[in-house]
Structure formats: structure tokens, C-alpha cells
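Re: [help] complex structure
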Amino acid sequence: MSWTRLVIRYIQYHKLKTVVLVASIFLTTFLPLTILILLGEFNEKIISRARSTPMVIGAEGSPLDLTLHALYFSSKRPAPIRFATVEEVRQTGWARPVPLYSRYTARQFPIVGTNLAYFQFRNLPLAKGESLSRLGDCVLGSEVARQLQLRPGDRLLSDPENILDLAGHYPLKMLVRGVLEPSSTPDDWAVFVDLKTSWVIQGLGHGHQNLAEETDDLKVEVRSDGTLQATAAVLPYMEITDENIDSFHFHGETADFPITAVIAVSPDEKSETLLMGHFQGMENETQLVRPVVVIDELMSLVFQVKKFFDLNAILIAMATLFLLILVLVLSQRLRIREMQTMFKLGCSRGTLLLLQFSEIAILFLFSSMLVALAVWGVWMMAGNVVQSLLIGGQG
Amino acid sequence: MIPIHLEQLEFRYPQSDFLLKIEQLTIDAGSRVAIVGPSGSGKTTLLNLMAGICRAQQGRIQIGEHSVGEMSDSERRNFRISRIGMVFQQFELVDYLNTEENILLPFAINQSISPTGEDRQYAESLAVQMGLGDKLRRLPNRLSQGEQQRVAICRALVTRPSLIFADEPTGNLDPKNKTRILDILFDINREQGQTLVVVTHDTQILDGFERIIDFQDFTVEANTDSQTDRMLEKRS
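Output below.
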């Protein structure tokens, strides 16, 4: 038996004390470190995403909501704007518009209606399959494909907006056309469809059987002017196939169809400034925001709040340290007889000190190992945690 | 077998009126000696001086060829752990160690001696000899007082010392266990020839001793027990 065994036996025997001390050290260290890691991850991800998105145009209201929606497809979406805005941006010649319409979900993952320019803008290459080519196609972010175990050729059903709303839109069974490479961005957690597909999901466009060939009076009414009117008995197609794609059509003007944001990519600063001036000078219901400015403001606020957390963490750490010192001092007082006996038997003062310090060192070492393990876990999951907790996406 | 010789010994506690003076005292090698005297008379102090736990201001303590007073602190510790077996009134077992670990404690706390396989076997045989063979894995709180004192005796013997110093070894025991513990100590003295020095204030246990040293023969001023404890507390 060596002195190290003595130390270990002491720690084993005083389990409760050991657990309390280890837990105190662990919690005092782990919580601030977790906040630090998550905040660091949050800051890094959100800033890099904001920097890669020069300008966003959307409905007037909270610039933060608009930015988070355009960057992270967050569920708190801004009011829709008209699709005409896309054309308006294009016509200025100062920026390339990338439309976004994210309102629906598929298995809880956001469905993002856009066009092929989005994949080019975000540099999102395909890992499997092909890009969007037909109405009803979808391309999955890597995490969506992984979590739902979907591959090109599989089908994915959009979620009903409200299952209790009988008059609501029908879910659309989409064909998985491709899967994107992982990008460690919110794009991994999104289902991309063409804008028109998202309008079909909303019910602005639909396909159904040819009413002219329908003889069932329950499904077709002949109006007084001779035109045919479908009744509620005519069900729209829930899946777009080669056979029924020609029956799909939209009611109304495309320019009036909704989108939630337009990402505007200017070729240079001058064009950017001109576009900003254009939208600031207009008296309509849109606003143009620069995500990097909005996110900087958000982060400066977050870091101000963090200062209070830091102060709090320091105070808790000091309180825990005093508590530890008190427990250890009291514990040493209780062990005076034991130490005296060892001294009488022939133990040196150095060895007695070594025994006591080793116990403290082992407690700290054990706590540090637990903290390191937990921090490693947080580190590994930080991306998903930031995505799911702070942004409100999946993960 | 080692004799003990004390000469012109003077010891006083710092900042205290207490004084212990011994002109001359010799304890023969291999003898069984009881040191008697009332509580607080300085018996334990004498034992501590002989064991090198305390250091006399004057005089000489000669144990065999070794002069305890001339040894350094580490030499006295090493001498104590290898040559002297200590038994205490309160047994002083370490509560988080089992019987076997308590017996082997001297090896764990002093780097100068490390246990061999033979030492471990010897520890086990001592435990068996003391009737503790089936209690090697038990913690002290699951042993009776008699068993605890037997573990303490095993601990004192495990380094194969030449001297056994026992401070009130029966003070906390019932009459049956008192007799048993003394028989064990006497048997060890007879079989292995260690010098046995027992400090006691219990005059009923003196029958088996070859010599009884009465503390009234020495000059003692003031009460000592609490001062010894305080001094040890400071040092340990």
C-alpha cells in the first residue's frame, strides 16, 4: 500500500463529501465555460452568415426578425412582400436579387422557396442527385437528409399549416431531387424548393382533373355564363407527376404572389449604396437592411448582457472557493487525531501535507476531467445547439 | 533485543512550568516493563521522549547503539517506524482503511520502508494469529473494541520492531479484553523477545510485568497530558 492508495481510499470512503465538492467545482466551472463556448459559436456563426449576406429586403417591421429569417429561416417570419420586389431590384441594375419564401415546413424542417441563384450565391454544391428542375422537386440540406434518412428519388410530404383547419391547404408530396453537401450553416437544416412549388404548397397554384371531361354533377357546376365551376368534391393533386404536371396552374398575377425576403447581391459598394438609397427613399412597405449591421447591434447587446453573467460567474466562483476552503479546513480539523497518529508512527510532516494536498488535487483533477469531458460535448454540439436553441431551427 | 538507557534527562514544554527530570533509568533488553503513575504525571511524555516524538532539552536517551537525542528529525522518524511499535489507548485506527490496510499503514506513510510480498504475508499471518483472519476487509467501525486494539497491535508489530511502546493499551477495554490484549503482548515479548514498555495507571494489570517503574520516583512538575497533545497538534 502506498500513500496514493491512502488518498484514494480516503476519497472513496467520504463519497458524499467528494461528490459535493466535485459537483461544486464542476458546476462553477462548467456553466461559464458553456456560456462562453455557445456565445463564441453563436457569434462566429451568426457573424459569418451575416457577412456573407450583403443586403436583405423585406417587409417593414423588426430588422432583426427580417435578418434572422433571411439568414436562418427562423420560424418568426416577417410579413410577406410582393414578388414584384424581385423584379424591382433586378430593374435597378444595382443588385442581383435572390428571392426567399419560407413559410411551410416538412417534418418540422423549414421549406425554403427560392431559385437556382440561391445555391450559387451560397456556394452549395450537390452531394447526391440533381438540382431543382421541375415543379414539385425539392433539394435537401445534408442534416435533413441524414435525420430523415432520405435520398434522391424519395418523397417528402409538406406539413399542414394547421391540422384542425379543414379549409387549409393540402400537403404536397415532393420528390427529393438532390441532397446538398454539408456546409455547417442553416442550409443544412432546410428543404429547398422552387418558389412556384412553395406557392403550390400554399394553394396559390394547383392541379386537378380536367373539369371539361368530368361528368359527375357533384364535382362540376355549370355557371349561367356557361363556364365550369369545380365543387369542393374536386380534390387537387397532392403530388406533381409527369402525368399531372400539365394540369398545374396558378390563379392571379405572379407579381402579387408572396415572398418573405429578397437577398440583394450588389457587384460593388457604389451599387449597394444606390440600392439602399432607392429603398430608403421609397414610400412603400418594404425595408432594406444590412445583416452585418443588425447582427453587430444584436451581438453588442448580447455581450453587454454577458458582462453581467461574467461578473455573476466570478462571484459564484469566489463563493464556491470560500466554501471549498471552509470544507477542507473543517475536514482537516476533524482529521487531527489521524494525522497525529501517523506522525507518531513515523510519518513526516511533508508526507502529511502531501496526503492532504493530493486529496485536494485529485478532487480538482477529477472535476477538471469531468469539466473537460462536458465541455468537449458542448463543443461538439455547439453548432447544433446554437442552431436549435438560439435560432429556432432543427437539430 | 535492545536495552534503553536514560541519563540526566530533562524535559520541559515550551512556555510551561512543567518539568520532567530523570536522573537515570535503564530498561533491559527483552524485558516487560510497566510505567505507572497517576493521570497527567508525565508517563506518556516519557514514552514520547523514548520514541523520539518529543525531544529532551538535556540528557541522553540511548536505545541500543542509537542516541535518540543526536538523531535528526528524519532519522528519528525512520528509527521509530522501523524499530519501535506503538500501541495507543484509543487504538487510533484510520477509519477509512480496512483491517489489512491499517496493519500495513506504517509502510504507506514512510518512504524509507516499502512492503515486500513477505511483509504482506507476515501482516496476514499476524492478523490470523490475533483472530482477525476473517476480518481483513472490514473497516474499523465494524470491529469490536477488542478487535480494534488487536489490529493496532498487528500494526505495531508489522515492521518487526525491537521495542513495543504501549500507552494505556487496555484503558478502553472491558476486563475480558484487557486480559486478552495483555496476554497477546506478553506472548509476543516471550516469543520474539521485543522489549515491552507499557504505560498505565491501572494497577490491576501489573501482574505479568517483570518490572514496574513508579513515576513518583521522578521529578515531575505540573500536569502534562494536554500540553503533549497541543504540542503534537502543532507538529503534525
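Chain B is about 35% helix and 20% strand.
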